[in-house]
Amino acid sequence: MEYLFVKYLHVVSSTLLFGTGLGSAFYLLATTLSRDVRAVAVVARMVVRADWLFTATTAVLQPLTGFWLVHRLQLPLSTPWLKASIVCYVLAIACWLPVVWLQMRLRDLAAEAAREGTALPPRYWQLFRWWVVLGVPAFFLFLALFWLMIAKPALGA
Q: pLDDT tens for residues 38-88?
């Protein structure tokens, strides 16, 4: 029962991590492209909250439950699909960490523009481009992680 519970936590937390990231990215992207400054300010604020509430907690829970499951199953960390999963996760988190900072800056810039009744400033658009540049590889890395978790391929065997 303990194993199934931890595996359940691992699967649910991976779903929340990916789903919250994808949903937040969609809403911030769509709202930003609408150029409705007040809407961008509200959505950016909610995206930052969702990131701290769901993404940050599940980003911590994933390796904890994952390494517990690996230990419980006595899988060597050198198992090809597992090694690839760890690399993908580290790279995805390396993309996500600056995205958190970028989202907080985007939130602040949008809130200031909304208060002042002005358009989103050029700095917003510069940071937004970086947000997209980092978000795209993170998205594909998480897709690869789901495939690795499910397929557990031999990779080079």
A: 999 999 999 999 999 999 999 999 999 999 999 999 999 999 999 999 999
Residue 89 placed within a domain? yes
Largest CA distance in the chain: 60
Total domains present in the chain: 1
- Give me the domain span that covers residue 137: 2-151
- 113-146 pLDDT tens trace: 999 999 999 999 999 999 999 999 999 999 999 9
Provide the b/e sequence for 112-136 (b: ≥16 CB within 10 Å).
Answer: ebbeeeeebeeebeebbeebeebbe
Q: Nearest Cα to 28, choosing from 17, 39, 19?
A: 39
In a domain, 137, yes or no: yes
Task: Report the 10 Å Cβ neighbour count for 12.
Answer: 13
